[in-house]
Design brief:
transmembrane helix; transmembrane; biotin transmembrane transporter activity; globular; mainly alpha; two-stranded antiparallel ribbon; Arp2/3 complex 21 kDa subunit ARPC3
């Protein structure tokens, strides 16, 4: 297997692991807990190519769907992907794809921020 193909498999696994770890860090401000999973998705989307960033989030959602405790608060299962906060989780796919598309190597600062 060539090095590029191997990295195409490793990067999404690393990205899903990073999202999982940062989603467990909770900052309590008032009654609403904030997690760092949104930061993780944005960081991955800014660093990885669009395909790898989207695969990272898709892998994270698949791991949660099969029941692994990867979502915030250690939750997992198909119920988390169909409950009241499921749109937030599904939105990560669009967020990762759009952000990584806008922040590629050839992007100027004007394109990224406008």
């Amino acid at each position: 297997m060539s090095r590029n193909k191997l990295l195409t498999l490793i990067f999404p696994a690393f990205g899903a692991a990073l999202i999982t770890i940062l989603s467990q860090i909770v900052i309590l401000i008032g009654t609403i807990p904030f997690t760092l999973q949104t930061l993780a998705v944005g960081l991955i989307a800014s660093i990885f190519r669009s395909r790898e960033a989207t695969f990272s989030v898709a892998l994270y959602l698949i791991l949660g769907a099969i029941g692994l405790p990867v979502f915030a608060g250690g939750s997992g299962g198909i119920a988390a992907l169909s409950g009241p906060t499921s749109g937030f989780l599904w939105g990560f796919l669009f967020y990762a794809a759009l952000t990584s598309y806008l922040t590629n190597i050839e992007s100027s600062l004007a394109k990224i921020f406008c």
